[in-house]
Structures are given as structure tokens and as C-alpha cells.
Design goal:
Helices cover 41% and strands 22% of the residues. The chain is an alpha/beta fold. The radius of gyration is 21 Å and the shape is elongated.
Length: 224
């Protein structure tokens, strides 16, 4: 799940963008001022992208951009502003913005530009489910920020389950997808690895946060 810092002082625009991006599976932190945005950024919380308005009540957006660039030169920043003339666009890009979108704007175009920047930065391959975060490209899992030591088979099993949260996978399906159609073992191996995975995820089978047993059917991942 991409973590987006939205810096927008207009309550209607901010709420509209926040809800739209959250509906698209992103985690959005909304700051209504430049100071609030920098406070969030300097807290050390991981951010994947910033959507930054230029016309803020306490400071110019380009000042915020400069501070963000000093903190993290590689953090993607998309300027969102009513100043859509060529000189303003060029100025914003020269100051370090990665993209520029003028108001009024289409939410679909905003989403497309955000996804393009995330792909370019190699950050679209992350998904978050509460305290569990997965880096799909690096094939790493983190629980409450701490890396999990998962075997290749455990990781393959987890990645299979999270492909479709809420979908029930039968033991037969999991056996074929994770171990392959020619695996000589029985479906009991699936149950054994689910137990191992639950232990590392600190998951309780009776009150699961992540992996739920569906009696008589199989397993499903809880989330999204």
C-alpha cells in the first residue's frame, strides 16, 4: 500500500482527493499547511509520494518542496496547483518537482500520474495490511516495521494468499500454486506451513488478524 502525503489547504479538494486515493488502496496523510506537511515528513515516517499544493496559508509550496528535497532527494513530489501557466510549471519542475498538475483536475488523471511516479520510483510494489507490510519486488515482509524471516515457501504461501484478500483458497489450490502440480506430498503440508506462517505473523487461529481458516474449505487472507 503506497503511503501518500497530501498537502492541501482547501477542505473540499483535500477531502475529495483523500477519499478517492484511499478508495484506490492508498494510505493518505493529509496536511493542511506547509508546516504540518514538514512536521509529518520530519517525523521519520516512511512516505512514498507527496502531492503538494503551491498555494498554502503559511508558506509557499516551493519552500516546502525545497525542505522535502533536502530531507529526501528521491521522494517523488507532484505539484497540484491553480498556477497552470507554462512559467509556473517550468519553475516548479526546476525547483525539483517530479510532475505538475493544474487545477481544476481530473481525479483519474491525478491517480494515473501518481501511479506513474510510484512505478518510476520503484515504490508501487508495496502493500500494507494493518501492521503487516509487504515489499512485493524485494519479496520481503515486515510486521510492525520489523523484517520477518520467512523461508521461500512461507513467502510464496503468503504472497499467494494476499493476491485476493477475502478469497477462500482450498488446500488443493494452495498446494498446486505454491508447491507445484507435481509435488508428491499431501495437503497436510499446507496446514503445516500455515501454522508456521501464523507463528511468525503472531497470528491467533481463534481470533485471526491475517489468515482465517474456513472450515471445510481452506484458508483466506483478511484485509483490504
Amino acid at each position: 500500500m503506497a503511503r501518500i502525503l497530501l498537502v492541501e489547504d482547501d477542505p473540499q479538494v483535500g477531502e475529495l482527493v483523500r477519499r478517492y486515493l484511499e478508495k484506490e488502496g492508498m494510505e493518505v496523510f493529509w496536511a493542511r499547511s506547509g508546516g504540518g506537511a514538514l512536521g509529518r515528513a520530519f517525523e521519520g515516517e516512511r512516505l512514498d509520494l507527496v502531492v503538494l499544493d503551491r498555494g498554502l496559508p503559511d508558506m509557499e509550496g516551493l519552500e516546502v518542496l525545497k525542505e522535502l528535497r533536502e530531507l529526501d532527494p528521491l521522494l517523488p513530489v507532484l505539484l497540484l496547483t491553480g498556477r497552470a501557466d507554462e512559467d509556473s510549471r517550468v519553475e516548479g519542475l526546476l525547483e525539483g518537482a517530479d510532475d505538475y498538475l493544474g487545477k481544476p483536475f481530473s481525479l483519474k488523471e491525478l491517480l494515473a500520474r501518481i501511479k506513474a511516479l510510484l512505478r518510476r520510483a520503484g515504490k508501487e510494489g508495496r502493500r500494507r495490511f494493518g501492521p503487516l507490510e509487504l515489499d512485493l519486488e524485494a519479496r520481503q515482509a515486515f510486521l510492525e516495521g520489523e523484517p520477518l524471516k520467512l523461508s521461500p515457501t512461507e513467502m510464496n504461501l503468503l504472497l499467494t494468499l494476499v493476491q485476493a484478500p477475502g478469497r477462500v483458497y482450498t488446500r488443493e489450490e494452495l498446494l498446486e500454486r505454491v508447491w507445484g502440480p507435481d509435488f508428491p506430498g499431501s495437503e497436510r503440508v499446507v496446514d503445516a506451513y500455515i501454522r508456521l506462517l501464523r507463528k511468525k505473523l503472531k497470528d491467533d487461529a481463534q481470533a485471526p488478524r491475517f489468515i482465517e481458516t474456513v472450515v471445510g474449505m481452506g484458508y483466506r487472507f483478511l484485509g483490504e
